[in-house]
Design brief:
The chain is α+β, with helices and mostly antiparallel strands. The protein contains 11 helices and 16 strands. The strands form 4 sheets. Strands 9, 10, 11, 14, 15 and 16 form a 6-stranded antiparallel sheet that branches. Pfam families: Dala_Dala_lig_C (PF07478).
Length: 349
């Protein structure tokens, strides 16, 4: 295979938080997957003002020194580079939807799930409805808009319908705590989900990888929780801000999370449910789902996170490594699959 020209789509069309989050993952990916014998990497960096830059790296200095351009000029520039495929690294809603759709229009393939699937997964209530229709168990819930009154008796989880990294998520144990929790959640979205709290047995994530047309369940990742002192995960468990204003990963070690032994009976059970979710949502290449396991061992679907930056600390990367698939092999496998699928579709057209 000739050297592939891969464009990393980085930044955010929404706010600085997502810009920093995107830079964090993209930087690790660029360093970990750089193989000059296989890839020639390019970077497109989008800022909340809608302008594009094509810096030599994702450092703040290189980004600031690169001339911004309009989307029209950016499209012209991208077309001139003969890009083979795109790796989306944007985690805001526009980045996961509109910007992926742009590359559909440009007929440039991209790794990961399609814009329409990402749009569905970005709305937690819609995602729950679809997987529930496929027979997957989901917590009882309701979707509220400003002014609506919850009808579900606590304990419940309140969370924005469109937000990740546990932003705006609150466990409400009594009705008197509803109002402040709703106010917090509405800071992040104009719709809020109230769902019945599933008592803690365990909480895991399960990744699904497409290999040779087959769905392969990856080893589970389990999170350290405690029914009394830490019944749910928080933003602080995932990300933290450094003194210079950059985002960094919260510690990922065996104290906070770990890979579940593949002989654990819960593994096969959750993997089967995750594959059902993958198919119900129309995913491709890979997928990732969160599940709450109640004390009786029943998995309950919580949400989907259908993206992977291919950084060493990305969840899919960690799970694949535990299965014996190193990051370079994982990345190369998905790259080849993306190109093969694209060429097949173009041939049929």
């Amino acid at each position: 295979m000739p050297i592939l020209r891969i464009l990393h789509l980085v930044g955010s069309a929404h706010n600085d938080f997502y810009c920093n989050l995107s830079r964090l993952y993209a930087q690790d990916c660029l360093e970990a997957t750089a193989e000059r014998s296989r890839y020639d990497f390019y970077i497109a960096y989008i800022t909340p003002d809608g302008l594009w830059r094509f810096p030599p790296s994702v450092s703040r200095e290189d980004i600031a020194a690169t001339k911004p351009m309009s989307v029209v000029d950016a499209i012209k520039f991208i077309s001139e580079q003969n890009i083979d495929l795109v790796l989306p690294q944007m985690f805001c809603i526009p980045g996961m939807t509109h910007y992926r759709a742009l590359f559909d229009l440009l007929n440039i393939p991209y790794i990961g799930n399609t814009a329409d699937v990402m749009a569905i997964a970005s709305h937690k209530a819609t995602t729950k409805a679809i997987v529930a229709g496929a027979g997957v168990k989901v917590p009882q819930g309701e979707l509220l808009r400003p002014g609506d009154v919850p009808t579900i008796t606590p304990p419940v989880i309140i969370k924005p319908s469109k937000s990740d990294n546990s932003l705006g998520v609150t466990l409400v144990k009594q009705a008197s705590d509803y109002q402040p929790a709703l106010q917090t959640a509405f800071k992040y979205a104009d719709e809020v989900i109230v769902e019945k709290f599933i008592q803690l047995g365990r909480e895991v994530r399960c990744g699904v990888l497409v290999q040779d047309g087959e769905l392969v369940g990856l080893p589970l990742e389990e999170y350290k929780l405690d029914p009394h002192h830490k019944p749910i995960r928080s933003y602080a468990d995932k990300l933290k801000e450094t003194d210079d204003g950059n985002l960094t990963f919260s510690a990922k070690d065996h104290q906070k999370s770990w890979i579940v032994d593949i002989t654990d009976p819960i593994t096969a059970k959750v993997q089967e449910v995750a594959k059902n979710c993958h198919q119900a949502l129309g995913c491709r290449h890979y997928s990732l789902f969160d599940f709450r396991i109640d004390p009786e061992g029943q998995p309950w679907f919580l949400e989907a996170g259908l993206y992977c930056s291919f950084a060493p600390k990305s969840v899919i990367s960690t799970m694949a490594k535990a299965k014996g698939i190193p990051l370079d092999e994982l990345f190369y496998t998905v790259v080849k699959q993306t190109l093969a699928n694209h060429h097949s579709i173009n041939f049929r057209c």
